[in-house]
Specification:
Length: 232
């Protein structure tokens, strides 16, 4: 057979933990007291997954869902159904929930503070997780980046992480640029400058240029613009 359920993994995924905490406590993952409830929620989900393992003999896990479309779709539906109650990011044209147990992408936290908060959730999402460090336009110092990499690997519980830089590509003259550029620095093109960045787990065309054949949904595009960029 092409698919054997006994060899598959069944997963609990989630989005919007930060916004759920804001609704319940008035503060999100960045608040230490509110964060304690976040841990309890994930511990409960893990307990349920372990219970199902025992009951069914199947492999159940808890993951940080990539949610490229779900974070946008759920927030849009909630904004339409509960306009006076919903807590989400963006506006009525481009709403989104913060992905899984990440802190908000526009966080005011320092990078070490972000690492500390998100690191504590990786042991609770053994089915899959990622820590994002969205980098700025300047070229990172290799020694500093290597030092940070060693600290993450040796002193935190982060299991998988990525340093990601936004790129812009001029369809007209084929110039590649760092950062999200609306005008080509080489030929001055404005209508056909495409953006590329990590959507969640992989780098993808955003759909910024007029000639783009695909791209990100409105919520992910808004999240892209909201992302805090780190210089290292």
């Amino acid at each position: 057979p092409y698919y054997q359920v006994d060899n598959s993994t069944l997963s609990f995924g989630f989005v919007g933990l930060n916004e759920m905490l804001m609704a319940q406590t008035g503060a999100g993952l960045e608040d230490p007291e509110s964060n304690k409830l976040g841990h309890k929620v994930l511990e409960y989900i893990n307990d349920r997954a372990n219970q199902l393992k025992s009951e069914t003999g199947l492999r159940w896990g808890v993951i940080q869902t990539p949610a490229e479309s779900t974070a946008y779709r759920f927030a849009t539906m909630d904004r339409e159904k509960y306009p006076d109650q919903v807590i989400c990011n963006g506006d009525s044209n481009a709403s989104y929930y913060t992905n899984s147990s990440h802190v908000p992408v526009d966080t005011a936290l320092s990078l070490p503070e972000k690492i500390k908060i998100e690191s504590d959730y990786h042991p609770l999402t053994q089915g899959g997780h990622i820590f994002h460090a969205f980098m700025g336009e300047s070229y990172s110092d290799p020694d500093s980046l290597m030092s940070l990499t060693n600290k993450i690997a040796r002193k935190t519980d982060i299991g998988f992480w990525a340093y990601s830089s936004a790129l812009s590509f001029c369809v007209n003259c084929k110039t590649l640029m760092k950062g999200l550029q609306s005008t080509c620095t080489h030929c001055g093109e404005t209508k056909n400058v495409e953006w590329y960045d990590r959507i969640t787990g992989y780098v993808q065309q955003v759909g910024h240029s007029e000639s783009a054949s695909g791209g990100w949904n409105a919520g992910k595009k808004q999240e892209l613009l909201d992302r805090k960029r780190w210089e290292k």
